[in-house]
Amino acid sequence: MAKGTTLTKDSNGARVVGNWVEGILERSIWTGYKTKGKSLLPITTYRCGKCGLLENYAEG
Predict the structure, then answer these.
(1) What is the total count of domains within the chain?
(2) Residues contacting 47, CB < 8 A, separation 6+
(3) What's the whole-model pTM score?
(4) What sign for the dihedral angle of Cα 7, 35, 37, 23?
(5) Structural domain for 17, as ranges
(6) pLDDT tens track of the chain, all 60 residues?
(7) Contact present, 11 and 29 (Cβ < 8 Å)
(8) Sign (positive or negative) of CA dihedral 12, 15, 16, 17
(9) Of 59, 51, 52, 56, which Cα lies nearest the Cα of 6?
(10) What are all long-range contacts of 54-60, with beta carbons under 8 Å and residues at least 24 apart?
(11) Which domain of life is it from (predicted)?
């Protein structure tokens, strides 16, 4: 498996790393979702070079 990262675009079109967020998210007018006080872990993605299978992990 080869290590990689899942990218997401923010509202300004910038590429950002996807994160795992603990618990149930509440909507926010300004940021989309409220994450204050929640654990945020970057998502690491592994890809199999033979079959293309992707596995995501929130390491940390």
Answers:
(1) 1
(2) 1, 2, 4, 53, 54
(3) 0.67
(4) negative
(5) 2-58
(6) 777 767 677 778 788 888 888 888 788 888 777 888 888 888 999 999 999 999 999 887
(7) no
(8) positive
(9) 56
(10) 55/1, 56/6, 58/19, 58/20
(11) Bacteria
Q: If we measure between CA atoms, which residue out of 39, 43, 38 comes closest to residue 56? A: 43
Looking at residue 50, its pLDDT comes to 95
- DSSP three-state, residue 7: strand
CA atoms of 4 and 52, how far apart (whole Å): 12
Instruction: Give the amino acid at 13.
Output: G
